[in-house]
Structures are given as C-alpha cells and as structure tokens.
Amino acid sequence: MKASRSEAVLGALVAIAIVACGAPSASSPTANPVPRTPTPARGSDIQGTMDSGGVARSYLLHLPPNAARLKPTPLVVAFHGWPMSGGQMSRITHLSNVGDAHGFAVLFPDGYRQSWAVPGSATPAQQAGIDDVAFVRSLIDFLGDQYGVDSSNVTATGISNGGFFAQVLGCRLADHVAGIVPVGGLMSRNLAESCAPSRPVSVLEIYGTADALYRGDENTLSFADSLAFWARADQCTGPATADALPDIAHDKTTVTTTSRTGCASGSEVVGYTVNGGGHAWPGGEPLGSVDEFGVTTQQFDAGELIWTFLSRHR
Question: What total number of domains does the chain contain?
Fold first, then answer.
C-alpha cells in the first residue's frame, strides 16, 4: 500500500525542523489540569547497542534515582518521529524528568535510519523489511533482566511515526505492552485489518485538530475511528463520556477528553482532542515553527498524563 501524502509531507517537514533547530530530548479522566513536573533528583542515562536481525541498533535508557525508584520499576518506551532520534525524543518530551520525579524508567530506542516500520508506510524501516517488533521485544527483555525494569507491563508511547508504531505494538506485542499512548499517530488501515492483541491493551490517544491526519485518509483511520477501533478490540461496554480541561494556558487551544470504560480486564480507551493543536507533544518542546507544525499546547503535560495513565494500569 502506498504511503499517504500527509505522511510524506510530514517526513519532509520534520527534516526541515531538525536542520533549523539542531539535532541533539481505574478511573476515567477528570477535568483537572495535569500538574507540572517538580524538579527531581537526577537519574542516570545508559547508552547501549544490540544486534537485531543482523542490524546494530542503539538506545538510551534513563533510570530514575534510587531515592525515587519504584520496584519493580515501571518502564515507558518512547518512540521518536521520522526523521528523529531517541535523544531528540528525550529532549522534546522531558520524559526523563517526569520519570525521575515518579520513579519510572524511560527507554528511548533509535529507529532504523531514524524511522519505524509501520504497515502501509513508506518509512526506510518499512521499506527495508526491518522487524522492529522483534527488536523492541528483545530489547525490553534484555533491559528487564539487566536493570530490574518491569518488562511485562510496558507503556509504549511515541510521536508521529513513533505514535503509529505504538499502535503496532498494541496489536503485536500485547504480552509485554499493557498500554499505549500514541501522540500525533493514528491506526493505519493496513494494520487494523490484522490487529489481534493477545490481551486487552489500554489506550490513551492524543491528537490535535489542526494536525494533517485528524480526519484520516485512504491509508489511515481518523482520530475518532482509531479510538472506536480500540474500544471494539477491548470490548468496552460503558458509554462514551466527554469532558473538557480548564483553559489554563490561554494559547488558543482547548482540550476535550473522551473516555470508554467497562472494557475487558480493566482496560480503558481515552482520547485527548487538542482543539486548535498541531503536530506536537503537549507540554513539550515544539517540533518546529508554528507555521510548519501548528501550536504546541501547554494546557497539559503529556509526560505527566502518561504517568497517571500508567499508574492506573500497573
């Protein structure tokens, strides 16, 4: 299947932004804003490589300080967009700081040629036949043994191509992944046709209405349809409930939340619609200029939201 025009344009725009900015970071949601991360004691970064399918793959693992570290230590795996790196993902999201404050570890893998393999896409990883699911499985198993992180209840997040890949892991690595948080990355139609998670996966999706694929296209489900897909997959029987976050940032964006509970095995499906928001990580650094990527909302901190989501499903 051909990649969408929007995806191809997005890849080019991110490349422009990187050149311009410099390469290197069991309850329903409430209407209360997510608090900002306090300044914690600093944890430690571990850089490493491993062979996967005959290809040397690199990663950055951030461990929280011992004073804050939970045991077993929850693990968030954060996937960068295309073309980006794990180091850039760390900087943009400040997830390491959030992990230090709350005691969880964060893994920032590097994609093949700065990309992830997603069915139906035109990324270098997909075109080269890279098995990124196998790579992630091996990596989190290895790190679980080496550093005492919980490799069986991982939360996978990502932005853009990384968000699309988080959807792949929800479908194909549910024995390790308990929840996914795609940001600016939806469910591809190609993936939806074969998605069969081995257990219910909780889903928190974040998307801006000014982002290119908000309404979907010939290759991608819309934001609403992506949420509906997961509600069906998780056998959610509760009604959809909607709420709104208070406008605390006054940055020309507002946030509407939708939630589906009554899902199998205590899972949930939640959507954060950033009205007026662009292709961005809420509360983080912009991927580029407002003209290119739209507004990066500061109405909530996606990293802190991931922690509250993860906490509900540990």
Answer: 1
Q: Which tokens sit at 86?
A: 């794990």
Q: Do the domain assignments include residue 62?
A: yes
CA dihedral defined by 299, 103, 132, 225, rounded to 10 degrees?
-30
Give the range of the structural domain holding residue 306, as residue numbers without chain letter. 5-26+37-204+220-233+300-312
Taking the C-alpha atoms of residue 33 and residue 230, their distance in angstroms, rounded to an integer, is 25
288 within domain boundaries: no
Q: Is residue 277 part of a domain?
A: no
Tokens of 179: 């929840």
Joined tokens for residue 22: 């410099």
User: What confidence tens digit (pLDDT) does each residue in 128-180 have?
Assistant: 999 999 999 999 999 999 999 999 999 999 999 999 999 999 999 999 999 99
- SS3 state of residue 302: helix
Distance from C-alpha of 212 to C-alpha of 228, rounded to nearest angstrom: 19
Q: What is the CATH number of the domain that holds 176?
A: 3.40.50.1820
Determine contact, residues 136/169, Cβ cutoff 8 Å.
yes
Q: Per-residue pLDDT tens for 262-303?
A: 999 999 999 999 999 999 999 999 999 999 999 999 999 999
